[in-house]
Design goal:
With about 180 residues, this protein is mainly α. Helix 1 packs across helix 6, helix 2 crosses helix 6 and helix 3 runs parallel beside helix 5. The longest helix has about 30 residues.
């Protein structure tokens, strides 16, 4: 090694700091969601954790945009899933109709393309609750419970992103260029 050679890192800190920040956000939010749902609510927190990750971002403005898009599409999917479950009961034939209706509603009425796949996923979760229990009432309860978990995960993801932006602000690319 010569006096002029320097050790090369596999990444440059300024361009990769968002990944580090995102990892810290996900770590903290996962711990919160896991503890709250597994230990306090005594439920499997996997849907909430998946939602938290999908609605998270190291930058608050992007996390808020993802949260809004996910929230609206979750509510659309939940409404359609609950409606189909109420009308048809726990019927397998209702699932493809409900998902197709949800996609059309999300695509042509709601017009929020970010996270638009979340609407039919949520409708499927709601209807699956009824199919797995063969009960309309238990399905409604199970579906609403899962939607609540999804929304909880989204809220935790957004709140952790906001808190971390206050504790550990990330400089914007324009700030890195200097005067």
């Amino acid at each position: 090694m010569t006096g002029n050679s320097r050790m090369q890192w596999p990444f440059s800190l300024p361009s990769d700091i968002l990944g580090i920040r995102f990892a810290v956000n996900v770590f903290i939010a996962t711990a919160i969601v896991w503890y709250a749902l597994a230990h306090i609510a005594d439920t499997n927190p996997i849907w909430a954790i998946a939602s938290m990750v999908a609605a998270s971002d190291p930058q608050v403005t992007e996390a808020a945009r993802m949260f809004r898009a996910r929230l609206i599409n979750v509510l659309v999917g939940a409404a359609v899933g609950l409606l189909f479950l109420l009308v048809s009961g726990p019927a397998e034939w209702a699932l493809p109709f409900a998902l197709a209706a949800t996609v059309l509603l999300s695509s042509y009425v709601v017009h929020i393309q970010t996270m638009w796949r979340q609407a039919p996923i949520t409708a499927a979760i709601v209807i699956a609750g009824g199919l797995s229990t063969h009960s309309r009432l238990t399905g409604l309860e199970h579906g609403l419970h899962k939607v609540g978990e999804v929304l909880f995960g989204c809220v935790v993801g957004l709140l952790v992103t906001w808190a971390m932006s206050k504790i550990w602000p990330i400089r914007q690319p324009a700030d890195l260029r200097g005067p």
